[in-house]
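Entry for the shared binder. Reason: the reviewer on the internal report wants the predicted structure included alongside the sequence.
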Amino acid sequence: MRSFIFNIIFWPTLLVFALIAWGISLTGWQSGVRGLMRAACRTVRGQMRYILGAPVEVRGTPPHGRPVIIAAKHQSWADGFLMMAIMGDINFVIGSETGKFPLIGRIVRVAGATMVNSPGLTGAQGALEDAIKRAVDDPRPLLIYPEGRLPPVGESFRYRKGVHVLYETLNRPVIPVATNTGLRWPQNRWTKHPGPAVIEFLEPIPPGLPRDDFLPRLKLTIETRTRALEAEGQAAKEARS
């Protein structure tokens, strides 16, 4: 029942925010679009807590206002909402498939996000170069999902080189982020589940590592901790049943 109520409230709420943000985007008012996006994300987090019964627990230290790269596990549509709700004003690199949703493409472009092509498509390198140029003088944290798509809970995809391109060129620390949000809001499914959703900020990886060292270290760090959070979340679910 909670999942049903959440869905019938979430989608109309998101539509209202999207329509307002799209209208603001027509004026080119970037800070206004960003502010409304943050309000929408905080609203989603509140809906997860009070309607779905899935409070978001933040562990570790979110790097507010620091020029770092956040490389996060991506299991759920909730991830983007929650990261902006937690971090506030943040720069981000997202997949081009996001632009296929009505209104959303224009909104994220005016907000200053960089859309890169999904795995298997061309043009990602040029988009990353654009992201780097705009990030050089941007003190906000830069969020990227290194797998480039959503794996099912318990699985992972190849960590793509784009995250290392940002890491190497910008010469910034990378903050790995693990999560178990897929247990509560599984990918594209209508049914969602109550229980704590954990987002954990892990120890930073300092700049300067070559790609062959950096990517395996990043993947091992994120995936090891994500498996532990999944096991913890599954145990909590079984204890309630």
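Summary line for the report: The CA atoms of residues 119 and 200 lie 26 Å apart.
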